[in-house]
Amino acid sequence: MIKKSIWIYHLNTGGCNGCDIEIIDVLTPFHDAERLGVKLVGSPRHADVILLTGPITRQSMEKAINAITAAPDPKFIVAIGSCACGGGIWYDSYATVGGIEAFYKILRERGVKPPKVIYVPGCPPRPEAILHALAYFKGLASKKIKKRVFVEK
Amino acid sequence: MSRFTLLKKAKEIGVITERYPYKPTKVPEGFRGKPEIDPEKCIGCCACIAACPPNALTSLDENGYRVIRIFYGRCIFCGRCVDVCPEKAIRMTEEFELTADDHEELVQEVRLKLVRCSVCGRYYDTERHYRMILKEFEEAGLKVDPEVLRRCPEHRMGMSAEVIGLRRVRK
Ligand code: SF4
Ligand code: SF4
Ligand code: SF4
User: Fold this and answer.
1) In this predicted structure, what is the pLDDT of residue A4?
2) Are strands A76-80 and A49-53 parallel, antiparallel or unpaired?
3) Residues 42-71 of B with CB under 8 A from A
4) Which CATH architecture has domain B29-114?
5) Contact between B35 and B91 (Cβ < 8 Å)
6) How far is the CA of B21 from the centre of ligand 2 (A)?
C-alpha cells in the first residue's frame, strides 16, 4: 500500500496502556520494526501512519481529531486493540465514543474526510500482530482473515 | 572495559532480532488467540453470549434462523465463552494475525434453524436443541409426548400438569 518507509505516530486515545506497551515492544531490538523501515516520529505532521489505541474517550476526542487532521495526505490509521477496533470492553460507556466506527461517523459529521483504517484486534495484540499489520502495508504479508458464515442445512 | 569487550560480547550473543514477517513465529503455550465456534457442535443455547463481557458475541433470531455472531474487533480474548459452552463448541485457536481492511471481515456467523411452536407458530428454540432434549428424555428412560416439546414455554405451561401426572402413573 505504501512504497516508501513508513513513519508512524503513536496516538493513545484513552486506552489502558496495554496496547501502547506492545507498540513499544515492536520498536525494541527484539521485534525491531525498523527492519521494515518503520520509524517512530514525535509529531503527526511527519507521519504516514497513525497507530491509534484506545476507545477514544470524550476527553481525548478533540485532540485526536487535531492530530489526525494535522497528518499530511496520504495518511492511514491502524486501529490497534479491541478498544480502537470496536470499543472493546467500554464500547457502551458514556465516557467513550466507542471505537473507530463511531469516531468516523463524528468525523464525517464535522466534514473531515476519515483516512483509511486497518484493524488489528487483540487485547492487547501481540507485537507480531502489529508487525503483521505493518508488513501488510509494505506488501510483505497477506491478510489471513475473512468473514465466515455457516448456514445450517 | 575496553570497546573490544563489548564487541566480543556482541559476537558471543549474536543476533537476537526475530525474523517474524519473513518467517512464522511460535506462540507460547496456553496463548489465547481468536476464539472459533465449531458450527457442527453449536446448539444455539446462547450461554456464551450471556458470558461475553464486551458483547463481542451476539445473537439474533431472524427469518427462522438463530444467528450467533462473533465480532473479533471487540473480543478481548478472555476465554469466558470457552468456559461456559456446554457443548465445547468454542475453542481458542492460536491465530493472532487478524489484520483486516474492513470490520465485516472480523466476523464469524453461525446460522441455526429454529423450530416453531405448534400452537402459536412462533419460533422459540433451535432445532438442534429440540432434538437434543428429545434424545436426553429417551436416554433417561422417560416417555415424553413430542407434542409437549414442540410447544413454546408459554403454551407448554398448560400441559405440564398432565405430563407430570403421566409420570406418577407410570411409577
Ligand atoms: S485493547 Fe485491551 S490492552 Fe488495548 S488499550 Fe484496550 S483494554 Fe487496553
Ligand atoms: S473470548 Fe471473551 S470477549 Fe472474546 S468472544 Fe469469548 S467471552 Fe467474548
Ligand atoms: S455456548 Fe456453545 S453451544 Fe451455546 S450458543 Fe455458544 S457456542 Fe453455541
Assistant:
1) 86
2) parallel
3) 53-56, 65, 71
4) 2-Layer Sandwich (3.30)
5) yes
6) 27
In the stretch 57-86 of chain A, residues with CB closer than 8 A to chain B read 82, 85-86
Q: Domain boundaries in chain B?
A: 29-114, 117-171
Closest chain A C-alpha to B59 CA, distance in angstroms: 14
Identity (one letter) of the amino acid at A57? T
CB within 8 Å of A24: residues ≥ 6 apart: none
A98 CA to chain B: closest CA distance, Å?
A: 10
- Grid cell 481525548 in the structure block, residue: A60
How many whole angstroms separate alpha carbon A55 and alpha carbon A67? 16
Strand-strand pairing, B107-116 and A116-120:
unpaired
| Domains of chain A, first to last | 6-138 (3.40.50.12280)
Exposed, middle or buried, A33 (CB in 10 Å: 0-12/13-18/19+)?
buried
**pTM, full prediction:** 0.89
Q: If you compute the radius of gyration of chain A from its CA atoms, what whole number of angstroms results? A: 15
Residues A57, A63: contact at Cβ < 8 Å?
no
- Give B61's contacts in chain A (Cβ within 8 Å): none
Assign 3-class secondary structure to chain A: CCCCCCEEEEEECCCCCHHHHHHHHHHCCCCCHHHHCCEECCCHHHCCEEEEECCCEHHHHHHHHHHHHHCCCCCEEEEEHHHHHHCHHHCCCCCECCCHHHHHHHHHHCCCCCCEEEEECCCCCCHHHHHHHHHHHCCCCCCCCCCEEEECC
This complex has an ipTM of 0.91
What single-letter amino acid sits at A1? M
Residue pLDDT, tens place only, B30-72: 899 999 999 999 999 999 999 999 999 999 999 899 999 999 9
Q: Are B150 and B117 in contact (CB under 8 A)?
A: yes
